[in-house]
Automatic annotation (TrEMBL):
Chain intervals for the UniProt region annotation (Disordered): 1-29
Binding-site residues, Mg(2+) 1: 474, 481
Subcellular location: Cytoplasm
Protein name as catalogued: Lysine--tRNA ligase
Xref: InterPro entries: Aa-tRNA-synt_II (IPR004364), aa-tRNA-synth_II (IPR006195), aa-tRNA-synth_II/BPL/LPL (IPR045864), Lys-tRNA-ligase_II (IPR002313), Lys-tRNA-ligase_II_N (IPR044136), Lys-tRNA-synth_II_C (IPR018149), NA-bd_OB-fold (IPR012340), NA-bd_OB_tRNA (IPR004365)
Pfam families in the record: tRNA-synt_2 (PF00152), tRNA_anti-codon (PF01336)
Organism name: Bifidobacterium thermophilum RBL67
Known EC number: 6.1.1.6
UniProt binding sites for Mg(2+) 2: 481
Family: Belongs to the class-II aminoacyl-tRNA synthetase family.
Top-level taxon: Bacteria
Catalyzed chemical reaction(s): tRNA(Lys) + L-lysine + ATP = L-lysyl-tRNA(Lys) + AMP + diphosphate
One BP term from GO: lysyl-tRNA aminoacylation
Keywords from the named record: Aminoacyl-tRNA synthetase, ATP-binding, Cytoplasm, Ligase, Magnesium, Metal-binding, Nucleotide-binding, Protein biosynthesis
Gene that this polypeptide is encoded by: lysS
Amino acid sequence: MTNPEQSAEDAAEQHTQHTEDAPVMTTVEHAELLLEQDKKIRSNIDEGKSLDEAIDPSNKEFGPLAHPEQVQMRVAKRALMLKEGVQPYPVHVDVTATIGEVRAKYDGKLNAGDETQDVVGIAGRVLFLRNGGGLCFVKLAQGDGTAIQGMISKKEIGADSLKQFKQMVDLGDHLFLKGRVIASKTGELSVFASEWRIAAKALQPLPALHKELSDDTRTRKPYIGMIADERIRDMVRKRSAVVSSLRHTFEGHDFLEVETPMLQTVHGGAAARPFTTHMNAFDIDLYLRIAPELFLKRCLVGGIDRVFEINRDFRNEGVDATHAPEFTMLEAYQAYGNYDTIAALVKELIVKSALDAFGSTKVTLLNGEEYDFGGEWKTISMYDSLSEALGEEIIPNGGPDNPGTSVEHLGEIADKLGVERDDVENHGKLVEHLWEHFYEDKLYEPTFVRDFPVETSPLVKSHRSKPGVVEKWDLYVRGFELATGYSELNDPVVQRERFVAQAKDALAGDVEAMDIDEDFLEALGVGMPPAGGTGMGIDRLLIALTGATIRETITFPLTKPLNLQ
């Protein structure tokens, strides 16, 4: 027999060992197999067999892909409850107070052995269970981890009810207790139950709460992580607080939040490889949104002068510590602003989110280090800083009459330094690759990197005084890019030129180049005011504020499915 206190992870590992040579089954076949086993266990219980007799630990009849022993036992308990007329998943239990409310009211106010006549109805997940002779103890926790002790006594509820409690209740169940608030003989705040009821029967065992969760369990089963790891629950709450803070700051600056399409006929707004899908009703191919930019700018054309969106974007690219194929992006556009005014707004957004979610501009990262978002933020120029690193001046490509540093020379420098080169390259791409080689992971304090090559920024206004450069900045924090900002391009003729250049790159094999969006060009032709715009990854903002990886900041990260066998 399996140890009843065996953790979910240990049981899963045992089960995996037994399924290595199991037959391949389709999803439907496997689901039907489990249903048949559930029916067999219930039939055994209905025939009067005991819990131990109702299950088959060896799975001789159903094979290695059927329920492991612990799950079978819980399925049998569910069946026994139904047989005895007890609902394992009731619609309602009479909760009168949360565990947190009980603790807030009574913590520190009762001495050991004190009893009150205050009756409460509470519910929570069973995280600890000790069954004694005439007295059982449980630890119930609400969603945020706040816990309280429950005491179930034969004298209070009767022998039959206590026997049923011992037989039915498992770790992980949601349990309702009604009873008086007391302090145990050891001084533990407790609810002395006069009534108990299972609020939801858990068929799967919990992980061992005293052990560190494996990365696989934490990533593939985040709901388990939320139960077992306070840090994971805290990340969900901190993320919510950060997003709420961002919205509040925008509201204070009279920005309107809008929603733009996820399905788009033309992919644009960023240089990225899109996901494609097909719409049967129109019989057309569509792209999942890589950025909302071109639609938010249409709002500026329409007279919504300050607009933002917190949205889901999809990019069919690599996965690493700061990249995910599905991620949350903040984009905002302000009419009559520019990349200087938008930089001030982004700093305010980040500083206020740190204050609102963490209480200070100084945050403590997961590794214990402190990071300060307060004070002045550094600003550097991309071309000036690259020239300094190389020991020679790198000149922007200002057009036919002022070509700047040649592609050939930049390529020679890249080859000499061992910098990776793209299949389709130009002056701007090589400049950015070279700059990243020297600086990308070395800018630890908050730093605005300003004035990018025109070739890599097709939606940005040319610099007002520097040929070949656009008014764009990237914000680097702790060695990675956190946000980007622009003086937005609003000249439809120049925008068409940029789109054509992008389309030619696409024809040459650049899978990240944008298509020509004629509808957007027509919108620009109606007239878009000068504007500043920004994009910032919400996941990356959480990385910056906590020191976590991107998977740890995303509540439900995408993972590659495991084979059934």
